[in-house]
Amino acid sequence: MADDLSAVAHFLYEAGTLKQARRTGWWMAGVRDPESVAEHSWRASLIATIIAKLEGADPARAAFLAVWHDTQETRTGDVNYLGKKYSAGTADPRAVTADQTEGMPELLASAVRDLVDEYEAKESPEAVCARDADKLECMLQGIEYRAQGYEHAQRWIDNSRARLVTDTAIRLADELLSQNSLDWLRTALGEKDG
Question: What is the DSSP string of 67-120?
Fold first, then answer.
């Protein structure tokens, strides 16, 4: 291959740091060891696929957007909403992505920049679905933390639910709120509701 892949290799190591980067907002809810950014992005991508398929958008594109939506946090960290209040120059995800892709083969770099730009523009049906998936995943994580005894997670559940846009995400949120986080296991085991 004519293109140097050194910058791509650097990015792959950099992306791996998201497996250790914690979602900091959960600390305010009392969660001592919150999920990582990578864990959040993985489930958000699954949710984006589901929302997009049911909304008539391209599920693969929505998942693709969701996979990349927080990759900038390798350089900025996960700045929660309170932290953003005090960050005068909150980094533009587009600018961070441009720095991250510097030196990559242009075919790849431009594709990544375009993905982040589409997500941040909030205009395509797939971007709307991916953004709803981000919020719905946060709500779902809040439900799970609440079930573990973190009662302050309710704030994240309520705020995330209120920010959903698509009909599918709203309906799915209501369904998630009506269930226990282990109902799936009872169903898989064939247990009757008791």
Answer: HHTTTTHHHH----HHHHHH-TTPPPHHHHHHHHTTTS-HHHHHHHHHHHHHHH
Whole-number Cα distances in Å, 136 to 87, 103, 140: 25, 35, 6
| Per-residue pLDDT tens digits for 133-143 | 999 999 999 99
> In residues, how long is the chain?
194
For residue 119, give the nearest of 132, 105, 106, 108 by alpha carbon. 132
d(CA 66, CA 58): 12
pTM: 0.91
- Contact between 138 and 123 (Cβ < 8 Å): no
**CA–CA separation, 139 and 45 (whole Å):** 14
Q: What is the pLDDT of residue 115?
A: 93
Distance CA 137, CA 132 (A): 8
Dihedral pair phi/psi, residue 33, rounded to 5°: -130, 75
Q: Which two tokens stand for residue 20?
A: 């250790």
